[in-house]
Amino acid sequence: MRMNCLQSRRGYGTRLRHGMATLLLALAAGQSQAVTLEAVTEDSSYSYLENGRVAGPATAVVTATLNRAGLSDYRLMLYPWARAYDIALAEPNVLIYPIIRTQEREASFKWIGEFEEIQTVLYKLRRRTDLHLHELADAKAYDTGVVRDDVRHQYLRDSGFTRLVMSATAMDNFRKLLAGQVDVIPLSPRDARRFCEQLHIPFEELDPVMTLEQITAHAYLAFSLTTPDEVVRRATEAFDQLKQDGELQKLMTPR
Question: Angle at CA 19, nearest 5°, toward 18 and 21?
């Protein structure tokens, strides 16, 4: 009888140790999946501050995607583009949006899905009749405003433009155009209309000189490379569902 009790206590101890080990493994697995994400973006017609919160159509898509994926632990942060880009390059568990997908950036991120195609138009002020622009190369003779390190800045720099004036944000760049600090700026029509509305300027004061077909771009969501693959998989599936359901188009349609 004493042996049976001893064996019973030993058996209980073994089961207890196995149970504790299983619990610890489960907790560890849970912690590895409980990722806090940081979703970073810049001020544009796609994402902006509204009543102290990051809003905009692209932000609505990101929020819907992460919530549908069960990734509800996230922070939305608005930065100048160069800062947002550096964070996404260097830190884990970062979602950046909208980001133009290029060959140079392909291996630097885990790509989720495409928001929409973005056109780039070269704008000047309509009153600037002294500017003579028939093709893109003509703009090299003028001061061109760009957002530091964005895809338009990189394209124009690589195309031999030397009179580039840097700004931290697209709105700063737009203000420089209005103030005569730069002669032309590349901008999406969506951003141009929003900035005019914000500053109470008739859109007709802008002259769309030419569409830059060379940098018609595709705007994406993307994760930093060190984000867990499981997080990326869940977000990708949720984004694809959003697209299939027609919700993506609804969220991105201007109201």
Answer: 65
121 within 8 A of 208, measured Cβ to Cβ: yes
Q: Which domains does the chain have, with CATH numbers?
A: 35-116+218-252 (3.40.190.10), 121-215 (3.40.190.10)
- pLDDT tens per residue across span 57-86: 999 999 999 999 999 999 999 999 999 999
Among 212, 172, 204, CA closest to 188: 212
Give tens-digit pLDDT for 153-189: 999 999 999 999 999 999 999 999 999 999 999 999 9
* pTM recorded for the entire structure: 0.74
Q: From residue 181, how far is each of 88, 136, 184, 202, 205 by CA, in Å? A: 31, 20, 9, 20, 16
Q: Please enumerate in sequence order all residues whose Cβ is within 8 A of that of 20, keeping only pairs 6 or more positions apart, or say none.
A: none
Whether residue 96 contacts residue 88, with contact meaning beta carbons closer than 8 Å, is answered with: yes
The DSSP bridge pattern shows strands 109-118 and 94-100 to be unpaired
φ/ψ (deg, to 5) at 120: -120, 130
Separation in Å, CA 205 to CA 1, 53, 91, 123? 99, 30, 42, 10
Question: Which of 127, 153, 149 lies closest to 215, judged by CA?
Answer: 153
